[in-house]
Design goal:
alpha/beta, Enolase-like, domain 1, 12 helices, globular, seven-stranded parallel sheet, four-stranded antiparallel sheet, TIM Barrel
């Protein structure tokens, strides 16, 4: 296939409830949607960068410029044997994986639609027809608010609770959570809020039999995590520091963690996500699908990704209504009473686009052809 045009749309969507991590509080999302056009068909992707360069170096404005000025021109007009050819065309762009990955995801969706396949089948997934779901709960104003939110999500059927932590909102808060919910599957996400100097404090988390503690140390660190993991009974899950299959292989050799979170945008798209998945599977390291407060398109892509066989732990792919009063797809992503999402068999990412609502939300548009 030969991509004729790539259209970028920035939409602004208010969250139902603010979402706070160790580094920021978010009230609304500015999301870049990518449309790839070929012979009258369109495929859609979502660039998952945040509004600020806090999770990694990317943010909405930088991703727009990279996608427009560097990624799209390297793809448009090229004869692609398959969507796998997109990755080598853009790999020499240093960093900016979310900008690259959002464009690549749109072309995977386009290829699936051209072939009449659901996206999960196009990427080689299909190990499960229902995705086990967990939820990610941000830092709240009070512990009581947190406990109420956990109770609400458990009542909705979610199989795992992830709570954000930071110094001052960690050991004592988790102790209260465990006191109220002694048997739930619980994990903590630090988003790089600690250093090796905090090892003794992180060791205290062992008493709460957590599934894992996610990325406790620096966002770009593997070596310090390799020093921390032997001190803990709790498995470390690596997130921000794993941007490629090569880095995953390094972390596995160093025994820097026992679990890996795969985020489609963080690693640059499906091609690298599949390679990373395979590296972890070969080493018996389980993976799960992380979230970046995606709208419906990115959420649907995550569902397809999570059908690969080594995604054995509940991910952060949850129902649309947890984040949005109204999503940009129809039907919206819903969970079953058992805390799963049923994988759809329609071509592409499996949901219809609400074009009228997308137009209503759009704050800027630009086409590269």
């Amino acid at each position: 296939m030969k991509i004729e045009k790539i259209v970028l749309r920035q939409i602004e969507m208010p969250l139902v409830h603010f979402f706070e991590t160790s580094f920021s509080r978010t009230y609304s999302r500015n999301i870049i949607l990518v449309e790839a056009v070929c012979e009258g068909l369109s495929g859609w992707g979502e660039i998952t960068a945040g509004e600020n360069p806090f999770y990694n170096e990317e943010w909405t404005d930088s991703a727009w410029l990279i996608a427009k000025n560097y990624v799209a021109p390297r793809i448009i007009g090229k004869e692609l044997g398959s969507a796998m050819d997109v990755d080598p065309l853009t790999r020499h762009i240093r960093g900016h994986n979310m900008a690259r990955g959002g464009v690549e995801a749109a072309i995977w969706d386009l290829q699936a639609r051209r072939n009449g396949n659901p996206l999960w089948k196009e990427i080689g997934g299909g190990a499960r027809k229902e995705i086990p779901c967990g939820v990610s709960i941000g830092i709240q104003d009070t512990v009581e608010q947190l406990l109420d939110k956990i109770a609400q999500e458990l009542a909705a059927g979610y199989q795992r609770i992830k709570m954000k932590i930071k110094p001052g909102w960690d050991v004592d808060v988790i102790r209260q959570v465990r006191g109220r919910f002694p048997s739930i599957r619980l994990m903590a996400d630090a988003n790089s809020a600690y250093t090796l100097a905090d090892s003794a404090r992180l060791k205290q988390l062992d008493e709460f039999y957590l599934m894992m503690i996610e990325q406790p140390l620096d966002h770009d660190d593997i070596i310090d995590h390799a020093m921390l993991q032997p001190q803990l009974e709790t498995p470390i899950c690596l997130d921000e520091c794993i941007r490629s299959a090569h880095q995953a292989a390094q972390a596995i050799r160093l025994k820097a963690g026992r679990i890996v979170n795969i985020k489609l945008g963080r690693v640059g798209g499906f091609a690298e996500a599949k390679r990373l998945h395979d590296v972890c599977e070969a080493a018996a390291i389980p993976v799960w699908c992380g979230g970046m407060l995606e709208a419906g398109i990115g959420r649907a892509h995550n569902i397809a990704l999570a059908t690969l066989p080594n995604f054995t732990l509940p991910g952060d792919v949850s129902a649309s209504k947890r984040y949005w009063k109204r999503d940009i797809i129809a039907p919206e992503v819903e969970t079953t009473p058992n805390g799963t999402i049923v994988v759809r068999d329609e071509p592409g990412f499996g949901y219809e686009l609400d074009h009228d609502y997308i137009r209503h939300l759009t704050v800027r548009t630009e086409a590269v052809s």
